[in-house]
Specification:
Layout: E1 13-17, H1 19-28, H2 34-48, E2 52-57, E3 60-68, H3 71-81, E4 94-101, E5 106-111, H4 126-133, E6 143-148, E7 151-156, H5 167-175, E8 191-195, H6 214-240, E9 241-243, E10 268-273, H7 279-285, H8 292-297, H9 307-321
Parallel strand pairs: 1-4, 8-10, 9-10
Antiparallel strand pairs: 2-3, 4-5, 4-7, 6-7
Helix pairs in contact: 1-4, 2-3, 3-4
């Protein structure tokens, strides 16, 4: 029984943003084992971050619109997802891919729900909508997709939206009447499991930040925005949901919101797993001996040489923090 188990058997809706969109689609489509997904994801990273889209000039690396050539990413997604579309027989469970449509400044939670308003026009190739969600500005060129009605949409990484952490978006997708799933809310009716990609508290130190120039501000603006978006979503998930696993303090002032209540009760049960990328936290889960520079590099998305270490961090964090009782009626999570 356990050998035949796949994560899509347990979850009715799986979603992701950016790198999470790749993993979500792999879980929801094709019936892959977890070890298969890990292998494909590792190979994907090695391929897509190998072809830099620029040249060296007097010792300085000069890039074109995107730091990396987008074609290896397209090729790998084509290889993995072939001609599968949203809503076809390859879809084993609900899927929601979050992307940012740059030309209309709008967030697009694209699902395989056949009752969705724009499903007939938006039965995209899965490879294309995943590519759209992973089109990180400055790393890859935008993805252009025919969205129907004689329009082409210009899409970039969903992380550039307020739904960089897509858990709140998936709750809205599941429960708002306009999205046509109409699932009932309640902490005994809806369980949301959110998996992070690592978190760090960053503080800029230096005299230039006393009076930063416009270039300095522009370069750090995306990270500032995404950090705020992540914190707001996590605060809302703690506030609206009933935590059934580990909690973290949002900040010193509001704490972890475990004592906060809303009228009518909690809207869902909520599990959030993430790793604080600090020396103390890494030592706590058993990843030791890393220099401060190496720890700093772990948050860079385009270093394939970190993949094995990141996988080790995820596995050790799971052994430390994930407990069988967190999810009801499921196999031993640590072996999946």
């Amino acid at each position: 029984m356990q050998e035949a188990f796949r994560l899509h058997h347990y979850f009715d809706l799986i979603g992701g943003t950016s790198t999470g969109a790749i993993i979500a689609a792999l879980i929801a489509v094709g019936g892959y084992k977890v070890e298969d997904i890990k292998k494909m994801y590792k190979e994907l990273g090695e391929q897509i971050f190998s072809d830099r889209n620029g040249f060296n000039l007097f010792g300085k690396q000069i890039y074109f619109n995107g730091k990396y050539n987008s074609q290896p990413l397209k090729d790998q997604l084509n290889k993995i997802f072939k001609d599968h579309r949203l809503g076809d027989a390859s879809n084993k469970t609900g899927l929601c891919v979050v992307a940012k449509r740059l030309d209309t400044c709008s967030t697009w939670p694209v699902t395989n729900n056949p009752a969705a308003l724009f499903f007939p026009q938006n039965r995209f190739f899965i490879r294309d909508i995943v590519r759209a969600s992973t089109a990180a500005p400055s790393y890859f060129d935008p993805e252009i997709i025919d969205v129907g009605f004689g329009e082409e949409g210009v899409f970039v990484d969903g992380g550039m939206s307020m739904m960089n952490n897509p858990s709140l978006q998936l709750f809205l997708t599941a429960t708002l009447k306009g999205f046509k799933l109409n699932w009932e809310s309640g902490d005994d009716k809806l369980l949301i499991v959110s998996i992070g990609t690592g978190r760090r508290n960053k503080k800029f130190i230096g005299s230039k930040w006393n009076n930063p120039n416009l270039l300095d501000i522009a370069q750090c603006a995306p990270e500032q925005f995404m950090s705020d978006a992540n914190e707001l979503v996590e605060l809302m998930m703690h506030y609206l949901g009933k935590a059934t696993g580990p909690l973290r303090k949002i900040d010193v002032e509001v704490g972890d919101l475990s004592a906060d209540a809303i009228h009518g009760g909690k809207a869902f049960s909520y599990l959030r797993y993430n790793v604080e990328v600090t020396k103390n936290e890494l030592n706590n889960i058993g990843v030791t001996g890393l220099s401060d520079m190496k720890i700093e590099s772990l948050m860079n998305m385009d270093l394939p040489e970190n993949v094995d270490l990141l996988i080790e961090m995820g596995e050790k964090a799971a052994k430390k923090y994930v407990e069988d009782g967190h999810l009801p009626e499921i196999f031993d999570l640590k072996t999946l």
